[in-house]
Amino acid sequence: MPTTLAFSVGKKYLSRFALPVLVFFASPALAQATSAQATSPPDNLSFLQLQIHRGEAEHAARSLETILNQIEAINHRYHPDLVVPLTLIGDAAMVQGEPEKALQHFSRARHIARVSHGLFDQRQIAILYREADALRQVGKLEDTKNREEQAYEVARKAFPGNDPRLLPALDRLATFYLSTYNYLPARSIYNRALSLHESNKTDLTPQAVPVLLGIALSHRLERFPPIYMRNSDDNRLEGPTPGLTNSDLDALHLNFNSFPAGERALQRVVEIRRNEKPTDPLAIRKAILGLADWHMMFGRANTANTLYGHVYEEMIATDQDPSSLFGSPRMIYLPRPQNPKAPPANQRDSQTTGHVKVQFTVSPTGRIRKLRTVDSEPRKLMDFRVRRSMRLAVFRPKLEAGIATAAVGETYTYEFPYYPRIGDLSPLETQSSDDDPAPADVNPDTHPDPIETTKMEATEDV
To answer: Rounded distance, CA 379 to CA 381, Å?
Structure first.
C-alpha cells in the first residue's frame, strides 16, 4: 500500500483509540523497572505511541521491536510487560496498511493478557477492538463479529448491574450490528443502553443522544434498506448472525419496526438539545431536521413540512439565510442500485466509471415525478436500475417563504464502477423500459459494502 494511503487509513484507525492501551496495561513492573535494558519506561512507550499517531510508524516499530527483545531476554515470552509493546507494534502495522501483520501482534498481546490477568479481565477489551478493526479491514466479517461480541461479554462481566461503564461497549456492539444490517439485535442492545441510562438518570442528558439516534436508525434501516431490494428473499444485506445468548437479546423478536418508537427517540433528542445549558442553536436545529426527515421518509409530509417551516422561520429570525438548507431539494434517501456484472477476468478491461444523469420534479411531499434519463455512459447500461432506485428516493423539499413547494427540472447524476470488455468500451445495451425485467447483463452484488451507520441528526452544515 502506498505510504500516503496507509497513513490516511492509520489516522482513521488511531482516532478510535486515543491512547487507551497504556492506561489499561501499564503494569507496576513496567512502571517501576530499574533496568533500561530490561524494560522501557512507560514514558518512552507513550512517546512511541504518539510517534505512531503522527505517522512515524516505521521508526516507532523498530524501537518497539528492540523493547520486546529486551523484555524477552530478561524475562520470558509470556511476560505481562510484553502486552503494551505488542499492541503498539500492531498499531504501527495498522498505520502502515498491514492489518494481517497487526493481527499477529494483537493476537499475541491478547493471549498474554488473558494468561496474565484472566479470561475476562477488562484490560483485554482495547486489544479485542483493535483485532476487530483489523479483521474487518481484511474482510473477515464473521471473525470481526466474534471479537466485537467477546469484547462486550468481557465488559458485561467487568461492569455488572447498572454500571454506566458498560455503555461504551453497548454502543460499540450496537453500531457494529447496524453496520452489518443486523438492525434487530442492534435495537435490542440500544434499548439495553437506554435502560442503563435511565437507571443512572442520564437518559435526558446529551450522553443518551447516540443511543436514541441508534434506536431510530434501527427502525429506519428496517423500512429503508441502503440498497435496492428486488424482493423479500434478497439476502445480500444479511450480516453475520449474532452469537449472543444472554438476556440482552431476549426481546429480539418482540419489537419489530415501529414508527412511534423511532419518533419518540428523535423527539427526546430534540428535548435534550433544547434543555442543554448553554443552549446550542445548531444542535437544536440538527435535531429538529432529523425528526422532520424521519416524518418525510415515513410519508408524513404535513408534519415534516411544519417542522421544516419552523426551522426556516427560526433562521429568518436570527438573520440567517434559509436558502442554504431549503433553497433546493436535498436527497435524504436513495437505495443504491445494483452494479453491473463484471465480464470474466480474461475478458475485462481496466475498471472505469460510468454515470446516469436523470431529471425530475420534487413534489412538496418529498417524492419525485416526471423522471427521465437525460444522459448516460455507457448508454443504457444502468439507466433502468438507476431510475428504479430513484422512484424510491426521498427528498427534503424546497421551501419558499417557509412553505414546501415543487422543484421542477432537478437533476441527479449517479456514478458507478464497471469493467468494459476488452476492446469494447461500449457494453451491450440493456433494456431501458421501466416496465421491462432487470437487464440481463446486470446482477446483484455478491455482498454490498458494510452499511455506513450515519446518525439520524442532519449532517450538513447548518
So the answer is: 6
Strand runs labelled E in 267-388: 330-333, 352-362, 368-377
Do 129 and 231 lie in one domain? The reply is: no
State whether 408 and 310 are in the same domain: no
Q: Are 279 and 148 in the same domain?
A: no
Same domain, 47 and 124: yes
Closest CA to 368 of 332, 323, 325: 332
Find the CATH number of the domain harbouring 346: 3.30.1150.10
Kindly indicate the confidence band of residue 292, based on its pLDDT and cuts at 50, 70 and 90. very high
Task: Specify whether 318 is located in the same domain as 279.
Answer: yes
Residue 36 grid coordinates: 533500561
Q: What is the pLDDT of residues 131-184, one digit of tens each?
A: 999 999 999 999 999 999 999 999 999 999 999 999 999 999 999 999 998 998
Looking up cell 427540472, which residue turns up?
409
The three-state secondary structure class of 357 is: strand
Q: What is the pLDDT of residue 239?
A: 66
Q: Where are the alpha helices (DSSP H) in 75-166?
A: 83-95, 99-117, 125-137, 141-158
Look at residue 208 and tell me whether its pLDDT is greater than 90: yes
- The answer to whether 382 and 320 are in contact (CB under 8 A) is no
How many folded domains does the chain comprise? 3
C-alpha cell at 358: 436523470
Question: For residue 247, what pLDDT is reported?
Answer: 52
Which amino acid, 436? D
Higher pLDDT, 432 or 106: 106
pLDDT band at 8 (very low <50, low <70, confident <90, very high): very low
Domain with 298 in it? 160-328
Other beta carbons less than 10 A from residue 211's beta carbon: 27
Domain assignment present for residue 428? The answer is no
Last residue of a domain, one of 382, 398, 418: 418
